[in-house]
């Protein structure tokens, strides 16, 4: 049995997993943006505007709110008001930084997130926990799949996330592709200060039947990478052979890590991960190293072979509107 006992939320149905995953993501979003899982939107100008689907109507409202603010003396520059303005500006500029994997996770996110009203897409910075080095229009591309299934379906009035895919010109050079993606991360996470590791608000992972997580494969040398943020993978034993992946230290430095795993085909690997950490599967390593910040969202089929774990009932964190 694993020494670091992760939180395991188990659901009888796929839709149950999708809804809980979406709730957990929105809670992480609210916490990153407002320091509160349940933040109700403040009635600031942009937020009032975003509640209205017609662009014309939102422009009219934004204008009338700012007119109201200047009429009520918001422009006066006392020390406390400028402190408040700086605080407000800082709050407005906050971003929710998330790392996505590929595979069936994308369909779970599509099912759970697109129907929610409280996803603040325009404040999301989306990176990829791993990517297969194939053209974006290939069905194997994690970015391509996330774009066509999720991002292209966000209603325009909800805004659009900043998305950071790999450089498609570097598909034939995995090392250069990984180095360039690392530079993208440095720009996003360490532009002002030097940081040892990027700190995502949330990294979402799946787990394949062979035990790979992101593109960290069992017994592969990338599992031991301790310096780079992003590493090339040259001989992946399943799926497209060349890939890039975030490394174990980066994944384990995330504020939260979430595994989303479904289906009876995953039952053997989940039982090895939970009951035989000594086998060193990538997910077991992450379970140990990020202990206390990990949650597993699974269906009952995926955990049917695991004995001796406590499955929790998921308590929704974000009150519906
Ligand atoms: O690019 C990849 O290979 C994925 O990021 C990978 O880590 C994925 O999450 C698992 O393979 C699970 O995929 P399924 O959920 O589709 O089994």
Outline the structure in words.
The chain is globular. Strand 2, helix 5 and strand 3 form a beta-alpha-beta unit. The chain is built from 10 helices and 11 strands. The model is unreliable at 41-73 (pLDDT under 50). It is α/β, with parallel strands linked by helices. It folds into 2 domains: 7-41 and 95-312, 3-Layer(aba) Sandwich (Rossmann fold); 45-88, no CATH class. The longest helix has 21 residues, at 14-34. 36% of the residues lie in helices and 14% in strands. It binds 6-phosphogluconic acid. 6-phosphogluconic acid (6PG) binds next to strand 4. Residues 101-105, 130, 132, 142, 206-208, 212-215, 239 line the site of 6-phosphogluconic acid.
Brief digest:
With 321 residues, this protein is an alpha/beta fold. Helices cover 36% and strands 14% of the residues.
Average per-residue pLDDT, rounded, comes to: 87
Give the helix tally: 10
Helix content: 25-40%
Distance between the termini: 40 Å
How many strand segments?
Answer: 11
Enumerate the spans where pLDDT stays under 50 for 5 or more consecutive residues: 41-73
Helices and strands, with pairings:
Elements lengths: L6 E5 L2 H21 L10 H6 L4 H17 L7 H15 L2 E5 L4 H9 L10 E5 L1 E3 L9 H8 L12 E2 L10 H16 L12 E4 L24 E4 L9 E4 L1 H6 L3 E5 L5 H9 L6 H8 L4 E6 L11 E2 L9
Parallel strand pairs: 1-10, 1-11, 2-3, 2-6, 3-5, 6-9, 9-10
Antiparallel strand pairs: 4-8, 7-8
This protein binds 6-phosphogluconic acid (6PG).
The site of 6-phosphogluconic acid has 16 residues, from strand 4.
């Amino acid at each position: 049995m694993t020494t670091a006992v992760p939180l395991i939320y188990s659901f009888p149905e796929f839709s149950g997993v999708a809804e809980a995953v979406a709730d957990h993501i929105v809670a992480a979003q609210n916490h990153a943006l407002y320091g509160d899982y349940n933040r109700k939107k403040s009635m600031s100008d942009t937020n009032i505007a975003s509640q209205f689907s017609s662009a014309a109507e939102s422009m009219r409202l934004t204008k009338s709110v700012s007119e109201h603010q200047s009429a009520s003396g918001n422009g006066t520059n006392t020390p406390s008001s400028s402190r408040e303005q700086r605080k407000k500006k800082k709050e407005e500029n906050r971003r929710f930084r998330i790392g996505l994997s590929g595979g069936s996770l994308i369909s779970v996110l599509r099912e759970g997130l697109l129907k929610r009203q409280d996803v603040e897409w325009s404040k999301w910075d989306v990176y990829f926990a791993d990517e297969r080095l194939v053209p974006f229009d290939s069905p194997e591309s994690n970015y391509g799949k996330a774009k066509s299934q999720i991002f292209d379906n966000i209603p325009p009035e909800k805004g659009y996330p900043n998305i950071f895919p790999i450089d498609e010109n570097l598909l034939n050079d995995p090392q250069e592709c990984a180095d360039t993606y690392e530079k993208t991360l440095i720009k996003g996470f360490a532009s002002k200060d030097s940081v040892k590791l990027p700190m995502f608000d949330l990294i979402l992972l799946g787990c394949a039947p062979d035990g790979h997580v992101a593109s960290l494969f069992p017994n592969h040398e990338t599992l031991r990478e301790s310096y780079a943020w992003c590493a090339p993978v040259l001989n992946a034993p399943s799926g497209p052979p060349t890939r890039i992946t975030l490394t174990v230290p980066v994944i384990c430095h995330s504020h939260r890590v979430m595994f989303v795993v479904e289906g009876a085909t995953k039952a053997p690997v989940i039982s090895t991960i939970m009951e035989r950490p000594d086998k060193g599967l990538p997910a077991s390593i992450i379970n140990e190293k990020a202990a206390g910040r990990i949650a597993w969202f699974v269906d009952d089929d995926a955990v049917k072979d695991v004995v001796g774990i406590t499955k929790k009932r998921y308590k929704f964190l974000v009150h519906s509107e």
